[in-house]
Amino acid sequence: MNRRVLIGISVVIVAIAGWLGYRQMHPPGRTVGSLMPSGSLLVLASNRLQDTVSAQDLRTQISLQQIPVFAEARQRLDRFLYATADTTTALAFITGKNVRYSLHPITKTTLDFIVYIPITGAAADRGYLNKLTSPDPRYHRVLNHVFHDEKIFDLVSRSGEQLGSFILTDDFLVVSTSGILIENVAERLHQSVQLARTEPTFQVDADHWAGLTMRPEVLQSMFDNTGSLVRLFLPESIDLQFRPSSSQTHLIGYASDDIGNRQDVANLFAGQTPRRIQSTDLIPQTAATIYHIGLTDPVRFGRSMSQLLSSASGDFLRDRFAQIKSTVAPIYASLGSDILLCRLESAGVRDARVLVLNTANPQALKALSTAWQQMAIQAGARQTPTPVDFLGHKLLRLNVPELPASVFSSLFLGFRQSWITQHGNALIVANGEDVIQDYLQQLQRGLVWANGERQTDLLANTLRPANFTALLRLNRQANGQMSVMSTWPASWQNLFDSQADGMTSSFDNLETMAYQASYGNENILSTVVLGRTTRRASQAVLNRVLLQKKTELDEPLAATPIPTGSFSQGSAQFFAQETSNQLVFISPYGDKIGPVSTDGPIRSNALAIDFLNNGRLQYLFMTDRSLYVADPAPRKIQLTRIALPAGIVPTYLTRPRGATQRNWVALTTHSDGSIYALDRQQKSFVRIMSPTPKEPLLLPFQVQATPKGMTILAAQIDGTVQHWQENGTPFPGFPVRIQRKSEEAAQVRLAGPALLPAGQSTIQLITEEGELIQLASTGQIQKRIQLYRPVRRGDFRLLPDESMTNWLLLRTTDTEAAVLNQKGEQQFDVRALQPGTTLVRYHRLGAGITVISVKSGAFTTLYDLAGRIVGDRPIPGDFPVALQFDAQTNELYVLSGSSKAVQLFSIRMR
Length: 910
What we know:
It comes from Spirosoma rhododendri. Among the domains are: 184 residues, no CATH class; 237 residues, no CATH class.
């Protein structure tokens, strides 16, 4: 080897060794990056997170302290910060400091923070640190141990409770409630060679409240079962700067990150100018998740999407696109500015999804509709069926799975079939008939974002123009549950369920989470929006029962009032039946339309159906002898009477969800246990299912929609369980007769309906004696559990919610009622009830609101699942109340009938 080369290498080696030796003797000033262990999931930076915020500010504007992750970081530091020092000393120490918080995994189920607080030689710092290292021995003590030549302090209360561990360096106080994480910091402090860490430069000032850097998989977890698909639109790392929105309702985080390996997604949006969501009049209020792609050049977008789908990683989409490739060009060419996917809050068993494709004009809409049907035929659809009329729309079923995903990528999966219709200049595609019907009802009633002031402000001002938007409303999850967190790893669920009061989560303060992205040649511009779209309740009106409106009648009521619209506008509209069997309709303006005569008091619930195909909803209900179809026309009530077959039980009507027989519009039951369907065309009832043995069904029976049509599950009091297919044929293994557990046991008597909960395969039953029975879908008994029976005898009952998707248990005596969870554990009980007048109902109202109503005597009391009373007093009324919840105003509305009046009450929820 050349001698000069050897000399050069030697010089370099000596220089490096000298530099390392110098750094060992004279280490540079520490940075957060040099202290932080590897593997952090996210890093926060803020100089105001520990500030105190007034109660008034918490009601009127969003704050860092109310945002998940930020709230958990603050709570952990506060517990340590104020342990040894008074408030004045602690605030003097922490105020104005740019504190960093890094989040790390400890175990598979645990995450925890490390907090890095800058320290100086200021008097405030010295005063606090003296109290921390030398606390009052009556309350606390400080232990220490050495790990990797670094002294680690442990703050312990006199009772032995570990409050946290900390390390003091020249520049930082490093704190964590986890001793493992502090030891990781100590180990990093004494590494002989530390590679430089890239630290984002966060601007923290009056306008920029905080910085946040995170891995994309942390953000993707927000979007439940589509999270892995949303990640395709995220950059490889995200460094956000947060500031408040102009409306003070949201915090907005901005980032500009390298495009990295997201070039394929950027190519998808090449030539597309970022824009806002235009179709606000087509987003229903019950939208739980919204995905939006904004277009300015649909043809170019179509070419890019075609290339992406042609090389899709999934075999199904790649093969499907090859099958339909010749038909997709007109679809892309006909698109307007919005591709909008709404996942709706749904009380049914289906994950309700609606795709909105707007167009520029009616001609483009016609071309889009035609091209969509041709695509379905190319994908294997049979002959196009006859359209179904509903509220003035033609509904068409295309029985081909995953049509939206076939042309718009895997983000649009979830359509096992497509129901399409046209509304305005948009093609509407839903994944079920009931879904599209519920959607059109919301459009007809004006329950859309265009009519909501705060939703409109969110879209028009808070969110920025973007190529892609993913918007999540945490309080409007499917089936009324917060399904987002339930899909997260246990470690994240534990993190967000660890508030000091043990009762609430920081997610209680958050309703809206959004991610937006715009794609350039080199960078992805990201926006994260966190906040609220509903107004916070003032303590002055929180939980008070307020009378909104009272409508006087000429005679006493004969039945429960039938609501026909939304109560949130302050003017309830409803049908009311008087004791003379006269039916009147109270319009939204308070006008009395009618009366018309019926042949007896109303016995059943009411169904809203477009029975007459006139573009309006009619209301079906039964008396002892007849079914009536009431159509509230502008100036009169049009009443159609259909005679009931002898033996029909007139107390319960339900929809034939998923039925392939298009003329069936309602179902009821006979005293011999048969199921009857109301045929719209014949205007008569037809028997469709007959049980063996012929015994009455326990109401309500359950109707479910399946890919092969409607199914019905019902129980009979003698212990028989019926499970029918739509054609009346029992499923294999049914009917099932529940036998006694032993010869000495009493005869089995079922109490309440049989229920197959949404998304499960086990049928739930309970006997009057409190034996909880679980049946497999094939009819075999899987489990029998005898619930606890108190000394005083009580009867048990399965208590499903009104939509028959979830359930609780009920134990009653003549004067008491106890609500139990699904394991039989008592949630709460109500005593001193009036014998013979008690009715308990389970309401899942959506937006996370669940209520138990207990009617006893002339009053109804509302409870949450913890047994707390909703409202400051019972609701007066001689009949069961009707409930609606409006998420825009956080108001629970209660319609109640009492004597000669119908009253509308409201309760401002938390």
